[in-house]
Design a protein that fits this description.
Layout: E1 3-14, E2 17-28, E3 32-36, H1 43-50, E4 58-63, H2 72-76, E5 78-81, H3 93-103, H4 109-119, H5 132-145, E6 150-154, H6 162-179, E7 182-186, H7 190-196, E8 199-204, E9 207-213, H8 214-220, E10 221-227, E11 237-244, E12 248-255, E13 264-267, H9 270-284, H10 287-290
Helix pairs in contact: 4-5
GO molecular function, one term: ATP binding
Family: Belongs to the ABC transporter superfamily.
Protein name: ABC transporter ATP-binding protein
């Protein structure tokens, strides 16, 4: 597997607080990767390490075969949209595009113009007068038009309304598939990720809890319902979450072999899978970890 990003024992500490800890993960090239987890899990920290805005406290990270932001050439291969979608308030939309052209050797005016048209942005409008959603569209345009090998998006859709968000996701898929761009996108909206992602990384309490192809992960997890019993008696399965009533047990498991037919078995959706891992880890966290 060719990895667009490799992290090994990666950690970042701010004062006494570890924002990311013991993060080891390989993200395959040519995929659209969803990064999910609760607030404070370390998602933004991981992405900022990946684009070279932060330096690791421990461990290491490699992006596109090199150290993040190690050179102008490496920077030109990575497109990044921060959660705050920063723009220069005094510059017009057109001046942002001209700046993008000067700073990026692979800049594509055709892509930039097409995205402006689809987003309905006036090239003469100053960025400081744009709405939150329009600023997000401008930031996304700048990132896509530089024709990166890796596109890193940190909650890029939070300022967009549902219709615009869906249209953007469709456009993102079309442009990245045609160009062979790898994408890492962080979002709280699982339904958005389900539309575009084929790989998933779940980050909870600063650590990677699950990573892999979405189809494979869904195929290996099942919900089991049956008469109340001790989950420890279930062979060949890792119990992620469990719920009991007086007569019934409900489990979400990662099964490594066929399950006892006495259980009623059902498939698991992506949102249920993500929430199960978040719930399981929250139940096992110490008070200190919960405060992170």
């Amino acid at each position: 597997m060719t990895a667009v990003m490799r992290a090994a024992g990666l950690g970042k500490r701010f004062g006494r607080r570890w924002a990311l800890s013991e993060c080891t993960v390989d993200i395959p090239a040519g995929r659209v990767v969803g990064l999910v987890g609760p607030n404070g899990a370390g998602k933004t920290t991981l992405l900022r390490l990946a684009v070279g805005q932060l330096q690791p406290t421990t461990g290491g990270i490699e992006v596109l075969g090199g150290r993040p932001a190690a050179s102008a050439a490496q920077l030109s291969r990575v497109g990044y949209v921060a959660q705050s979608t920063p723009v220069y308030s005094r510059l017009t939309v057109e001046e942002h595009l001209m700046l993008g052209d000067r700073l990026n050797p692979r800049w594509c005016w055709k892509t930039a113009r097409a995205r402006l048209d689809s987003a309905g942005l006036d090239p003469r409008q100053r960025a400081g007068r744009l709405s939150g959603g329009q600023r997000a569209q401008l930031s996304l345009t700048l990132a896509v038009a530089k024709r990166p090998d890796l596109l890193v998006l940190d909650e890029p859709l939070s300022a967009l309304d549902p219709l615009v968000r869906r249209e953007f996701l469709q456009g993102l898929m079309e442009s990245t598939v045609d160009a062979g761009v790898s994408v890492i996108v962080s979002s709280h909206v699982i339904s958005d990720l389900e539309r575009i992602c084929d790989h998933l990384v779940i980050l909870v309490a600063s650590r990677v809890r699950l990573a892999g192809g979405i189809d494979e992960l869904l195929a290996s997890h099942r919900q089991l319902v049956g008469p109340r019993r001790d989950p420890a008696t279930l062979p060949g399965a890792e119990v992620i979450t469990e719920r009991h009533t007086e007569r019934q047990t409900t489990l979400l498991v990662r099964a490594h072999q066929p399950v006892d037919p006495a259980w009623t078995v059902s498939e698991v959706g992506l949102e249920d899978l993500v929430l199960a891992y978040m719930k399981a880890d929250a139940a096992n966290l110490s008070p200190m970890e919960m405060a992170r």
